[in-house]
Recover the amino acids of this structure.
């Protein structure tokens, strides 16, 4: 069984980051180790306040212990992290890598044209360092624009605009780009998947509802599916399907996240046949 290490915060309440990654990567039949970068009482996307315990100092302690014990990982999947954690994370990704280990970076820092609360305006430049050398980066349109120093805008991207943006994202040093939130027609929303040679698209019918945490669901399923041998386009398509299932299964008065738990049987079924005994 493949082993992924996910490095991102634990938001104790909020259905995002580690509390989403652990169950969804596991549901793909992939072992999911976690390294919490911080513990928050709840996420910062809509609650009026939160507590934040930074765990930066612990990252290198854990790294040393894993080196001593010879613990390595087949893949690293990073999400919401802070500026001071970029260097320790880069160090872990090189010192704890199994042969052929891959790096999946979700530059979780912004959505709907704005950085998340608490990130300074120059944070995208720091996040770009984590993207340099990544095997896969999974920005949404806002994150993509900020990473390359463009003004984010939410709509009006033509196919040429998207592919130019993707070229600039490869210019950061990312081998493959999975850009989410792409739309060329109001009824559809999807992803563009680029390996630097070609760009392929996957679309689903647009569900008109603001939902928090969907990027984390998408990245977690993408990481798990990729480790189970799916191509990047297949992994992206499955990730989008799980996001849609989860949104549709969420009660209309549930505002702070989506009920991804209800999509776990759908996801696990994808991997039951080829699940290792
Ligand atoms: O879903 C991304 C995310 C992760 N972690 C924390 C967040 C957010 C988005 O707002 O606040 C703490």
């Amino acid at each position: 069984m493949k082993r992924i290490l996910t490095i991102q915060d634990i938001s104790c309440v909020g259905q995002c980051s580690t509390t989403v990654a652990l169950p969804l990567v596991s549901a793909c039949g992939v072992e999911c180790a976690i390294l919490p970068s911080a513990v928050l009482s709840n996420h910062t996307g809509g609650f009026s306040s939160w507590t934040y315990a930074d765990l930066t100092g612990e990252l290198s302690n854990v790294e040393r212990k894993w080196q001593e014990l010879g613990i390595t990982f087949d893949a690293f999947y990073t999400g919401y992290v802070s500026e001071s954690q970029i260097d320790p994370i880069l160090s872990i990704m090189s010192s704890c890598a199994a042969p052929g280990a891959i790096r999946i970076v979700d530059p979780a820092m912004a959505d709907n044209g704005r950085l998340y609360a608490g990130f300074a305006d120059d944070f995208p430049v720091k996040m770009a360092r984590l993207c340099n050398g990544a095997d896969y980066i999974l920005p949404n349109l806002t994150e993509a624009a900020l990473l390359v120093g463009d003004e984010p805008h939410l709509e009006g991207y033509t196919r040429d605009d998207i592919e130019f943006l993707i070229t600039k994202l490869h210019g950061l040093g990312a081998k493959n780009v999975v850009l989410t939130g792409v739309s060329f027609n109001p009824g559809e929303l999807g992803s563009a998947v680029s390996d630097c040679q070609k760009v392929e698209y996957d679309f689903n019918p647009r569900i008109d509802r603001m939902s928090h945490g969907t990027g984390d669901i998408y990245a977690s399923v993408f990481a798990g599916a990729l480790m189970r041998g799916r191509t990047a386009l297949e992994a992206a398509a499955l990730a989008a399907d799980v996001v849609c299932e989860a949104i549709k299964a969420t009660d209309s008065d549930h505002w702070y996240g989506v009920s991804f738990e209800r999509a776990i049987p759908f996801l696990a079924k994808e991997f039951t046949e080829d699940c290792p005994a």
Q: What stands out?
A: The mean pLDDT is 97. The chain has nine helices and eleven strands. The CA atoms of residues 75 and 102 lie 5 Å apart.
